[in-house]
Specification:
Largest sheet of chain A: 2 strands, antiparallel
Number of strands of chain C: 4
Shape of chain C: elongated
Order of helices and strands of chain C: HHHHHEEHHHEEHHHHHHHHHH
Largest interface: A-C, 52 and 39 residues
Chains: A mainly alpha, B alpha/beta, C alpha+beta
Largest sheet of chain C: 4 strands, antiparallel
Number of domains of chain C: 2
Number of helices of chain C: 18
Number of strands of chain A: 4
Radius of gyration of chain A: 27 Å
CATH topology of the largest domain in chain C: MetI-like fold
Number of helices of chain A: 18
Shape of chain A: globular
Oligomer: heterotrimer
């Protein structure tokens, strides 16, 4: 019995969550909306698993061949019959749909992502916490890009419809000159910031990472590849002297590179989004109305157009994550990271490890879909505009 | 306050404003001089683009970046005996005219409250900025104000978001917000335009009461002289950025001199001059039996709900007449009009057209050929902007029915018909190759009418077709419709919420409420002898010139009430 | 000419538009008008246009055949050759370059042959064999090579439509410039002696054309998905959209990779491979645009003018062609332009991993891939020239896209 539950725990968890939403949804429209989104998310995940699984079929070779090939390196002689037998044993002779159903049901029952042929262990084991590593890379890069895109995007929105010169006929010559300098300064700053953020897009990630490493090489210092330098790699976080602060510094000295590289390239799009959203909100009547009530400065900008642009920005965080992860594999290869993104490249391009690649891609999709689900649910709870549009109350 | 040297509260002199746009300079306001005395309601009348809103916004210095206020404009505001040069205010000093001593009510209360911030927070913020009181006190005052402006359950409403209130309620909340800082001057920019007639009457009543209670002055901006007649002490009429007529309300209303003012006055309903009911009611062109329209409302995670927009209406529309269909927003009048054209989901009943060539009939299956109906009945839309495809030339738009149904044999024949109908609708033939963006609302509405007429239908549904237009343009369109009725024998179902338009145009009137037809009759019957209490209420809330002087408190009684 | 026009544009006062031309202006000319007001967009558009024209007529603009046939064996790993107007030998109105010759290897083979171990030591420690000294050339400043224009050189086909079945192959051997007595390598050469400048400008067109193919394919799929979904609505819409939603959450580059790996198994000619990659990139990228088109159609479908057309008796097809398609035409153009840089980046990413186009095809991705070679980074920095071009190209696209986005819907600001 315990075994049965241990093998099907994920399904029960999913059902319990669904049942909870259903139960609350009986009395609350909000929860019936959440249940709807929840079911939709699960449905999308199912479709994703289908797409990912069948796409991986295009990779050459199958598990049986690889397994047997491995055996042959161990000195055994192999015949076609052996391969076929192995194939039958692994169930690879069955049609795609059957294999997919098996994969999905293992996944849904106990979170089992399948078997990695190249590594000859289960995908869950092969991944370990590497996926979390990639996850935090992406989150950190997103954070970095928002850190830049938000203030600069707002600034850009601020100066978008302004003139270069002050033409107010009521102003004296001196006032005009002072205002013109201020306005031109703002415009130039905006142009520069946009140039810099677009440069992040225009410089391919791998090239940027390479160039930075190159700079280190030219300077004669060791490049911050990997996550730690050799001396710290095997030192535990908590050594004899308590927490190893130096290891933390070493870690930070390395980890900034991938975050900076993928973060910068994500900034361009984020900046455009922020700018468009803030400009959009700023043109609305309520901003004028607030101004007419005497709200000024930060209270006006922060409290009105910016505050109202946050929800749609927050709503796109799932897809931002996807976009950032999209860039990660190549950077990981260049920098020599060992996270799941690097593993993905390895699985796709070198070892043709179908289930490992499918597993990683599925996890990324899972994160994106969960984020979308959470942002939808949160926004419907806290943003009255979203609430009125999805719930009608 | 009595030691003030300046008897005027607000003194605008020689205000001249240009906008620098990519198409060149636009002269928005030309040499406007205007003043408001303490406690007085000053009306500012004009159409869209006349510069009245620009003038009002300039008082609060809310101009967009491309505004150029030219020399020698000046705006002097008398604040507690101190003369303030508004145009010279900078930074923090601006708060005097922004909420401090001057408040503003906007046309669209929905859009002027931030949607994601509670109304309470916005009002409390305003009070804290200007009055320096703590949050608790501000809240107490805010709720008291809500109660004062007549919002039921003020404590609950106070903490709601703007979309949770109804239209009239929103405008009341907006008024409460404007009053929260006890301004000396209240600028009201078309505060009642978006409201239904009955609610408009209530809001105007409220504003008059508040003026009396708080002793504040008002600059009341509107396009509607009827509203002015109810509320204002003095009036200035603006056109093309200039003031063309000014004086006391009585002088402007009863002895207007400028032709433009006279034109505006002519558009007002005159109940003493309603047309006689036609002696014989001609045979109907369309009969409607037990018509119901039901919309399916889908909401997330719920069963589909049904909404009955039109309930069991039976009606016959006499041939060659204009029939008005009146109702407030949500009364189902538009659904009814579209149902006649097979563009609403009919759930029950039948629509039958009686024409010379056999007629046409359809029920909820709507199994008719679109082409057949298009030749009998057409629609003229409410919004002259969204109803014309911006990517087609005027010629193509008008020719669309002909080309779509292949009614003509050659392009030259199409062109001939287009030119013919364009002339009928007073569209300049040279303008046919222009795109819609070249035209103003009224001209666009002519194009829309021409398109409806080009395949020579016998029946037209005009759905709020003049609601988006200025009064003087409205009059032109109404004249056009009348001439089309007389020349072509066209039957028109004219849907409107505006009783004054109905009174000026229609032969018969039907009144709708909550999807039901509650009263019908000739114009005279409905306007002079309404039977239903709702109709009576509706008629009573029309701002009429004849009522002038009955409902308002003369200025003299409030002048020194402070 | 472009620059002088540009300067003239900023210098002169904007003349007031004649009203009639504005009133009779269609959608495109309205967009153009609005676009022209964005200075950064206009500048970027000129840069972009210059690059596209140069790369389209790349053979004409490049003095040397970029393929291995044109490789200069005498000048491998050579650094850029500058164009001068004056030097210590005097000033010349005609621009000229110098003659570069390979340094004679200074090893003393005789002593080596004599078995002197010292000599071998000297040789290995003298850096003569290290890669950095391989691109040492003697610049003969006495021997000027004057620049010539419209010179005859290698033959190429300016416009070749023979592959499309047309009997048109316009061949020419004229080039914009060249030098007398030898060749000029403006941006140096690579390790085979191929001219970097010529390769780069040829590569731009390859990259742009691959992006064009990809975007056309993308457009086709997006229109199919968005159009069917938006027009039919209901169940079709629900199914299509859940599929699109699923595609949208999967990161695309790994998917491209998988497809590229699969393609690598198939024996393809470089040209087939080129098209296959473009199709893969385009076909998998339908989700975002398809979804937006659907939303657009759904909202546009409820516009009054569509109802008006229906009431006028227009057929479904007429409504689609006369009303719906033009309404998102401008949108599609803008979206396509905005997506250019992303498609180009996708191509370079694939090439970087060795899974996209490969040598000897000249694409920017292929040239960029070389930049990861430490030898090039340290000794042949001029091979970063394509990187510079690439950055300019992408930036130009982004800025043009930005300005176009603002100019895109000329009817949005009405009302």
């Amino acid at each position: 019995m315990a075994n049965f539950f241990a093998n099907t725990w994920l399904l029960w968890l999913l059902i319990t969550i669904g049942a909870f939403f259903y139960w609350r949804g009986l009395s609350s429209q909000y929860f019936s909306y959440v249940l709807h989104r929840y079911l939709l998310a699960l449905g999308t995940l199912l479709v994703v698993s289908g797409i990912v699984f069948s796409l991986m079929e295009v990779l050459p070779g199958d598990c049986a061949e690889k397994y047997i090939a491995y055996k042959s390196t161990q000195g055994e002689t192999i015949t076609q019959a052996d391969i076929d037998a192995e194939r039958a044993r692994m169930g690879l002779d069955k049609p795609l749909v059957v294999r997919w159903v098996k994969w999905v049901s293992n996944l849904a029952l106990r979170g089992d992502l399948g078997f990695s042929c190249a590594k000859r262990q289960s995908v869950n084991l092969a991944l370990g916490d590497r996926f979390w590593m990639s996850f935090w890379f992406c989150i950190a890069a997103l954070f970095f890009s928002y850190l830049i895109a938000l203030p600069f995007g707002i600034l850009s929105a601020f100066s978008i419809n302004k003139d270069w010169t002050d033409k107010n006929p009521l102003n004296s010559k001196r006032e005009k000159i002072v205002n013109t300098i201020w306005l031109s300064f703002n415009k130039l700053l905006d142009l520069q910031l946009r140039l810099i953020s677009y440069l992040g897009l225009a410089l391919p990630n791998f090239l940027l990472a390479l160039s930075i490493i190159l700079l280190y090489v030219f300077a004669g210092e060791s490049a911050p590849t990997g996550l730690y330098s050799d001396e710290w790699r095997n030192v535990p976080w908590f050594g004899d002297n308590g927490f190893e602060v130096d290891k933390l510094w070493d870690f930070l000295g390395h980890v900034w590179l991938p975050i900076f590289v993928i973060g910068w390239s994500a900034t361009a799009l984020q900046l455009q989004t922020v700018r468009a959203l803030v400009v959009d909100e700023n043109n609305k009547l309520y901003v004028d109305a607030a101004r007419a009530r005497g709200v000024t400065g930060m209270a006006l900008w922060g409290g009105y157009p910016v505050r109202h642009s946050i929800s749609p920005l927050f709503n796109s965080i799932g897809f931002d994550f996807q976009r950032v992860f999209n860039d990660l594999p190549i950077v990981a290869v260049v920098i020599g990271l060992t996270d799941s993104a690097a593993l993905l490249i390895e699985a796709l391009a070198q070892t043709n490890d179908q289930e490992l690649a499918a597993g990683i891609l599925f996890l990324v999709a899972l994160v994106v879909i969960s984020m979308n689900f959470i942002t939808d649910a949160v926004l419907a709870a806290i943003d009255p505009r979203v609430r009125i549009s999805v719930l009608g109350v | 306050m009595s030691n003030s040297k300046n008897p005027l509260l607000l003194d605008i002199r020689n205000l001249t404003i240009d906008f620098s746009t990519d198409e060149g300079m636009v002269h928005a306001v030309r040499d406007v001089s205007l003043n408001v005395r303490p406690g007085e309601i000053m009306g500012l009348v004009g159409e869209s683009g006349s510069g009245k809103s620009v003038t009002a916004k300039t008082i609060m210095r809310l101009n967009p970046n491309n505004t150029l206020i030219q020399q020698p404009s000046s705006i002097i505001f008398n604040h507690d005996g101190r003369d303030i040069d508004v145009l010279r205010l900078r930074g923090k000093d601006l708060s005097v005219v922004r909420g401090g001593a001057v408040s503003m009510i906007f046309q669209e209360p929905m859009a002027s409250f931030a949607p994601a911030i509670r109304i309470s927070d916005q009002i409390i913020q305003t009070m804290q900025i200007h009055l320096g009181i703590d949050k608790k006190e501000a809240r107490r005052r805010g709720i008291a104000l809500f109660e004062r402006v007549g919002i039921a359950m003020p404590e609950k409403r106070f903490d709601q978001y703007v979309f949770e209130l109804s239209g009239g309620m929103r405008q009341r909340a907006m008024i409460a917000m404007a009053l929260s800082t006890k301004p000396k001057l209240l600028i009201a920019d078309e505060p009642t335009t978006a409201l239904d007639v009955t609610i408009q009457a209530q809001v105007l009543e409220l504003m008059l009461e508040l003026r009396e209670q708080y002793g504040m002055a008002m600059l009341f901006i509107t396009h509607d002289l009827g509203v002015i007649s109810k509320i204002a002490d003095r009036v200035s009429v603006m056109k093309n950025g200039q003031i063309v007529e000014a004086g006391t309300t009585d002088k402007v209303l009863f002895s207007a001199e400028h032709e433009y003012t006279i034109k505006l006055l002519d558009a007002l309903p005159n109940l003493s001059n309603l047309p006689e009911a036609p002696k014989v009611k001609p045979a109907p062109i369309v009969t409607i039996d037990n018509l119901s329209v039901t919309y399916k409302m889908l909401s997330v995670g719920r069963k589909a709900e049904y909404f009955n927009a039109v309930k069991n209406i039976s009606l016959a529309l006499p041939k060659g007449h204009i029939i008005g269909l009146v109702g407030e927003s949500g009364s189902g009048k538009t659904s009814f009009g579209k149902a006649l054209l097979g563009a609403s989901p009919i759930s029950n009943g039948q629509v039958t057209y009686h024409t010379d060539n056999g007629g046409l009939s359809f029920d909820k299956k709507q199994s008719f050929k679109r082409k057949d109906l298009a030749n009998i009945a057409q629609l003229v839309f409410q919004d002259p902007y969204s109803s014309l495809n911006p990517r087609m030339t005027v010629r193509d738009i008008i020719a669309e029915p002909l080309e779509a149904m292949k009614l003509t044999k050659s392009r030259s024949e199409t062109d001939r018909l287009v030119v013919e109908v364009a002339k009928k609708c007073f569209i300049d033939i040279d303008h046919l190759r222009r795109f819609p963006h070249a035209f103003s609302g009224g001209q666009r509405q002519r194009i829309s009418i021409a398109r409806a007429l080009v395949c020579k239908p016998q029946f037209i549904v005009a759905d709020e077709s003049v609601a988006a237009l200025d009064v003087s343009i409205q009059a032109e369109i109404l004249t056009l419709l009348k001439s089309l009725r007389d020349e072509l024998g066209l039957t028109i179902l004219f849907i409107s919420h505006d009783l004054s338009v109905i009174a000026n145009l229609c032969d018969w009137v039907c009144v709708m409420r909550y999807g039901e037809l509650i009263e019908q009759g000739s114009v005279r019957q409905i306007f002079l002898d309404p039977q239903q209490s709702y109709t009576q209420q509706l008629i009573a809330s029309i701002p009429l010139l004849e009522d002038r002087g009955q409902s308002i408190t003369p200025l003299s009684t409030v002048k020194n009430s402070q | 000419m472009a620059i002088s026009q540009l300067l003239a544009k900023f210098g002169r006062k904007k003349k007031p538009q004649s009203d009639e031309s504005y009133y009779t202006a269609g959608q495109l000319s309205l967009i153009k008008d609005r676009f022209k007001r964005k200075m950064s967009g206009v500048v970027a558009a000129w840069i972009l246009a210059t690059m596209v024209i140069m790369s389209f007529f790349a053979p004409f603009f490049s003095p040397i055949d970029p393929t291995i046939n044109g490789a200069d064996i005498e000048y491998r790993r050579g650094s850029p050759q500058w164009i001068h107007f004056s030097d210590e030998n005097g000033f010349s109105l005609r621009p000229f370059a110098y003659t570069y010759t390979k340094e004679k290897t200074g090893f003393d083979f005789k002593s080596l042959a004599a078995g002197g171990l010292d000599a071998l030591d000297a040789l290995t420690s003298s850096d003569a064999l290290s890669s950095s000294s391989q691109n040492k050339y003697i610049i003969n400043t006495e021997q000027r090579r004057y620049l010539q224009f419209f010179v005859q050189g290698w033959e190429y086909s300016l416009i070749d439509l023979s592959f499309a079945g047309f009997d048109l192959d316009w061949r020419s051997d004229r080039h914009l410039f060249g030098v007398e007595n030898g060749e000029i390598h403006l941006m140096g050469t690579d390790e085979d002696g191929k001219d970097v400048y010529s390769r780069s400008i040829h590569a731009i067109w390859v990259t742009i054309s691959i992006a064009v193919v990809a975007l056309v394919v993308k457009l086709f799929f997006s229109l199919l998905v968005g159009g069917v979904s938006g027009y039919f609505g209901g169940k079709v819409d629900a199914v299509m959209m859940s599929f699109t939603e699923a595609v949208r959450v999967i990161p695309p580059i790994p998917i491209y990779l998988a497809c590229a790996v699969a393609l690598a198994q198939i024996d393809l000619t470089p040209i087939q491979r080129y098209f296959a990659i473009a199709v893969v990139i385009g076909a998998l990228d339908f989700a975002a645009l398809g979804r937006r088109l659907r939303t657009h159609i759904l909202t546009e479908r409820n516009q009054d003018y569509i109802l008006a057309a229906q009431l006028c008796g227009s057929s479904t097809w007429r409504i689609i062609w006369r009303h719906l398609v033009p309404s998102f035409g401008s949108y599609i153009i803008v979206d396509t332009l905005i997506n250019f840089p992303y498609v180009i980046l996708a191509e370079t990413s694939l090439s970087f991993l060795g899974l996209g186009l490969t040598e000897p095809i000249n694409s920017l991705g292929v040239l960029l891939q070389k930049a990861q070679d430490p030898d090039i980074q340290q000794n042949m920095i001029w091979q970063f020239f394509p990187v510079v071009l690439f950055v300019f190209l992408v930036m130009a696209f982004v800025f043009v896209g930005d300005a176009l986005r603002d100019a895109a819907d000329p009817y949005a600001e009405k009302k």
